[in-house]
Write a sequence for this structure.
DNA sequence: GTCCTTTACGTAAGCGCTTACGTTGATTTC
DNA sequence: GAAATCAACGTAAGCGCTTACGTAAAGGAC
């Protein structure tokens, strides 16, 4: 049995109240008492029981994070930012890999609520109405990263997907490309799917280039789908000289496909990605991509959640294009 | 304020004991009482407070995981296995990114202990003596993944690094390579460093090939170091026709370096990796590598930790080589 | 009908803390 | 020197649960 506060109190010859005060750095004891108690604590190896503390303080110093996929580079980077920031502020983080599954998500929301966590960060995932309902009932602070809410006014942190995608496309156009394909996410994805498609289309339109449905393919942001989409593109729209992929993973998939088919990047085909995860840097050739400050978004999310910085409402983070070697200038 | 069990009891006209019994599926009430109470619970939206429960039950249904680096593919895969398995068993997981930092690690160990978690999984990291001391004091079940303990008898799950590395090297030899370089981890790393170097050396020796210190370089398992080591190797030992990298990340780094220098893989140089993370599959060319069942090791770790399966002591998991396109047969 | 067992509860203690409030003795104020 | 103030504690309630124990009523055995 681990020693409790009353064991310490008994040993020190004081009351539990005094021990508690000393532990919590409040006032109401002499330096000598403090010294004595601290010694006893050391000696007995006493560690306060955070559960008992949580029960009375109504704070557990832990937050929960919902992620649609634990194993993607995107999630990892986000999580690293979150964990780091949380640790600095003396919070622990519980991870919940929802696998984009509705039932699972609700389960997690319930568990987190029962465990009396102090806040939740939800990432990357479109909030179904059911989620918002349960969230509303929970009365726990929530902040969103890379996603937004539709009914509730939940603060979020993300970049402007439409803008970013517009810029990526314009970047390609600026490099002289006129036949530009897209490897997008799902049409039905209102977060990273649709807006990015719209940005791409608008950029084409604004530059008097024609939009062709043949040149748009739909993946799921993951590697395999990137390969498949690239293959499709090569077949349906062989005239394209550049493609904009809505995620680095898909861009890398495109790279792999091109490699297999003997299509040289960037000589025969230029590719630009999205996210700027480490796989962009590691790709061959290194991938030009639109940078999202993922790690920082994670850090900021917990600061917002725990109100350590004065932040008002939601935040659109800046993005920019990082030029590497997968896009070439033509003409 | 959220309703408590006594609110439910009052509303239902029974005692808290009865409500508790109903919630916990014990006996001692009529079907009618149960029905009634369940209705009230539904109606009031009552959720048991896991903190209060934890205080009396001395179980929190949460475990902690220590990882040296949250953002590597290896860690992610491991974590996914752990999280998944934990969720199935109704446990939550708290993540702790130690960044291989001693002070941080101890901090985490303390926090986890205070939070009364039910078990700890420590991954990939060499257990310093201080860690083992604190672990011993904590009286919390621990299982190790991809690492072992030196003083304490802590159960572990890993593969035989020496054997795996021996086989990887022999695989290369089997493909006709005689001048084989190595991109290893640190010499001082007793887990994934030394044993893999030893395995490599032994395989060479057993096949009457000479060992040259010029052909061994030392990285830190990460991408950048892989690039650097490859560069070094190209300079110091240009005669090599193959290299064994002690991690996929370093192998990919080697790939990038080779690409930059115009060295064709596998035509001019063969490369074999270690881990079989997703980056091996995504590499160009796809990387031949030593497969570790990472995800399964994660799953198994929590099963061991929570004693759901009859397991005796530690486990050496099987490994095998997965052949992709980065190694070519010569002669 | 009596005695015993069983079922269906209620009572209250206790898990390990925090904290409002009370008490005591010393110090200050005038 | 009496009254007021204050520092340094101790007492005990309470956070939201679980559970050992007690009790009353019902049921069964004879």
């Amino acid at each position: 049995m681990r020693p409790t506060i009353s064991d310490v109190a008994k040993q020190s010859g004081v009351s539990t109240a005094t021990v508690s005060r000393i532990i919590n750095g409040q006032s109401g004891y002499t330096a000598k008492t403090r010294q004595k108690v601290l010694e006893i604590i050391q000696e007995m190896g006493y560690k306060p029981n955070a559960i008992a503390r949580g029960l009375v303080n109504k704070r557990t110093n832990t937050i929960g994070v919902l992620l649609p996929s634990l194993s993607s580079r995107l999630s990892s980077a986000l999580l690293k930012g979150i964990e780091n920031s949380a640790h600095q502020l003396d919070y622990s983080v519980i991870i919940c890999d929802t696998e984009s599954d509705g039932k699972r998500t609700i389960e997690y929301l319930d568990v987190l609520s029962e465990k009396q966590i102090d806040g939740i960060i939800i990432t990357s995932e479109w909030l179904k109405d059911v989620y918002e309902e349960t969230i509303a009932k929970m009365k726990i602070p929530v902040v969103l990263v890379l996603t937004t809410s539709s009914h509730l006014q939940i603060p979020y942190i993300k970049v402007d997907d439409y803008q970013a995608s517009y810029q990526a496309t314009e970047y390609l156009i600026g490099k002289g490309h006129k036949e530009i394909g897209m490897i997008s996410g799902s049409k039905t994805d209102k977060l990273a799917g649709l807006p990015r498609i719209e940005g791409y289309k608008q950029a084409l339109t604004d530059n008097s280039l024609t939009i062709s449905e043949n040149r748009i393919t739909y993946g799921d942001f993951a590697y395999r789908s990137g390969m498949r989409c690239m293959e499709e593109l090569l077949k349906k729209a062989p005239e394209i000289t550049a493609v904009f992929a809505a995620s680095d993973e898909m861009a890398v998939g495109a790279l792999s496909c091109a490699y297999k088919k003997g299509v040289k990047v960037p000589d025969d085909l230029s590719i630009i990605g999205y996210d700027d995860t480490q796989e962009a840097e590691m790709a061959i050739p290194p991938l030009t991509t639109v940078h999202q400050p993922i790690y920082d978004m994670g850090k900021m999310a917990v600061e917002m959640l725990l109100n350590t910085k004065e932040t008002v409402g939601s935040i659109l983070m800046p993005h920019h294009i990082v030029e590497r070697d997968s896009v070439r200038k033509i003409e």
